[in-house]
Description:
Distance between the termini: 36 Å
Radius of gyration: 33 Å
Number of strands: 5
Number of helices: 27
Low-confidence stretches: 420-447, 449-455, 462-470
Oligomer: single chain
Structural class: mainly alpha
Largest sheet: 3 strands, antiparallel
Amino acid sequence: xxxxxxxxxxxxxxxxxxxxxxxxxxxxxxxxxxxxxxxxxxxxxxxxxxxxxxxxxxxxxxxxxxxxxxxxxxxxxxxxxxxxxxxxxxxxxxxxxxxxxxxxxxxxxxxxxxxxxxxxxxxxxxxxxxxxxxxxxxxxxxxxxxxxxxxxxxxxxxxxxxxxxxxxxxxxxxxxxxxxxxxxxxxxxxxxxxxxxxxxxxxxxxxxxxxxxxxxxxxxxxxxxxxxxxxxxxxxxxxxxxxxxxxxxxxxxxxxxxxxxxxxxxxxxxxxxxxxxxxxxxxxxxxxxxxxxxxxxxxxxxxxxxxxxxxxxxxxxxxxxxxxxxxxxxxxxxxxxxxxxxxxxxxxxxxxxxxxxxxxxxxxxxxxxxxxxxxxxxxxxxxxxxxxxxxxxxxxxxxxxxxxxxxxxxxxxxxxxxxxxxxxxxxxxxxxxxxxxxxxxxxxxxxxxxxxxxxxxxxxxxxxxxxxxxxxxxxxxxxxxxxxxxxxxxxxxxxxxxxxxxxxxxxxxxxxxxx
Length: 515
């Protein structure tokens, strides 16, 4: 039977001064580490890096000021600063377009080059006149018409009309739909050549301040703002970036920025995070990346990137590692893992079964401890995935490890899915069928009878699927206060992570007692 090592009699460390060299588990776990690493990087390191970036994004102990400072550091790294800045401006355009638009409004004269020699851009922005008049003109068209009226002494002659003759301001004022006859491209080209005042006018500034113009050519404006940062060193542009990096969530910034970093720059970023967390007195142990917060805060030495990739994989991506292991090209590694886990399981004796780590605490660094317990948790994940396939086997495991459980029956599944708004369950299909059926009630009786039969069949199919799910086993467990239902598919990952967090919490208590 699988021992989850979560009983009160389980000790994290050996109470003796053993160096662990003669403990056979030391060799087994070292070999297992090699196999997992080999499987993980079979197709390169990019996926492992992506996993690590995902975990970093879940850190909860980074303040708004700290995140601004650490991401601002990336904007000073010569090799990546322009690409990082470009990505940030793309995010600004998406989330806060008015912030960028306000800069354009105050520096509209810089946009003359955006339109010069680009008929398509001119027509997209300015050729938006409406038959209904000024109130319905697009932003560019409204700016052009209002400026032409207010500054008709310098601008009206530059207007080009499609008809045989031009229109006077007095006529157009009473018939604003005449602007539909304006040759917009030629008019704007004339303004570019002869009326520079337009680009610094209040009318043009108002047209661009909401940021809608950014959508015409996003790439141009990304490069435009990056140049304002690094070539013009424009203070207000840097202020927009600082504000954005402060106000957005750390998770959002990480998800969008870390994936574009090369490994060297990612290491630089992680070193800065390490420096921040080293100074923290209190950590968030409820985040998915609690192990990473512990590592960075408790480890004085900076962990190597390979070590972080491995630790992250075994702590957070156990199920994915299993999938990689079961790939056709990993047949040799699969047999090797099977043999190592079998050797580990065959180790008997109270000295081994009740002590997770054969070394006394002072003899191991925190990164080594986290690697050790992570590998042990992954072994449990592997064993449960291989050995527990029936409700009886799961309930036997619960009983032998002191885990309270309650069967989660068919009625509970139905009721939970009905009460859940975003469950994505099979009952969503049933609800959709019912809704469609109601809409069909106004149809002919023959269609009604047909819809009713379809509804009945769909309900039967959905209930049968739920029965199949329940037959595989679904339980409420004491490990989380009976708050969530767990099916046999998810139990290996859930229980292995539960064991891991239990061991680490006990480890922290021991470390505090020994400090």
